Every structure is written in C-alpha cells, then in structure tokens.
Amino acid sequence: MVFEIAEVRKLARLARLSLNDEEVKHMQHHLGEITKYVDSLQKVDIEGVEPMTHAVPLDLSLRADEQMPSVGRQGLIGSAGYEDGLIKVPKIIE
C-alpha cells in the first residue's frame, strides 16, 4: 500500500509529530513497508494454532494463601515514619 503525503502528514499530526518534507518522504516509504508486512501476516495459515500469552511456556509457582502474623500498627509506633496514628512516607510530588 502506498501512503499519500497528505495521509502521512495527517498521521504525523495525530501522533503530535512535527515532520519536515524529507522526514515525510521517509515515513511514507516506511509506512508502506509496514503495511506490506502486516498484509503478509494476514496470509499465514493459523488453523489449529492455539492462542498463547507468551512465546515460551511460563510455569508460575503459587503458594497457599495463608494468614500470617504481622507487626501491625503497634510495630510501627517506634519508627521515624509514624506520627499521630498515621504512617508518614516521603513526599514524591513537588
């Protein structure tokens, strides 16, 4: 598929890209190559191929969901980040 210059400029505007004339010509060629590749993928026979989430099988080891003791609020009272019944954390937004 050949992209017209106006189409490339419209795509660039939608992507908030500022392209000069040379870059538009360059993108015109590359967008055409990308669509050719996608078209070739459409022709691949995938009959009987199961969908997968990863290219390699992943075995996740799961542990039992068990309640365990924790320090709770009382364990934080002596820490530097505890004040007026609340846990203080460093400021991350200016």
Query: What class would the helix/strand composition place it in?
Result: mainly alpha
Low-confidence stretches: none
Q: Summarize the biggest pleated sheet.
A: 2 strands, antiparallel
Helix fraction bin: 25-40%
Mean residue pLDDT: 87
Through-space gap between termini: 48 Å
Number of helices: 2
Count of DSSP E strands?
2
Approximate shape: flat
Helix-strand pattern, N to C?
Answer: HHEE
**For the largest beta sheet, what order do the strands appear in spatially?**
1-2
What percent of residues are in strands?
Answer: under 5%
User: CATH architecture of one domain, please?
Assistant: Orthogonal Bundle
- Rg measurement, Å: 28 Å
Name of the CATH first level of one domain: Mainly Alpha
CATH topology type of one domain: Histone, subunit A
Q: What oligomeric state do these chains adopt?
A: single chain
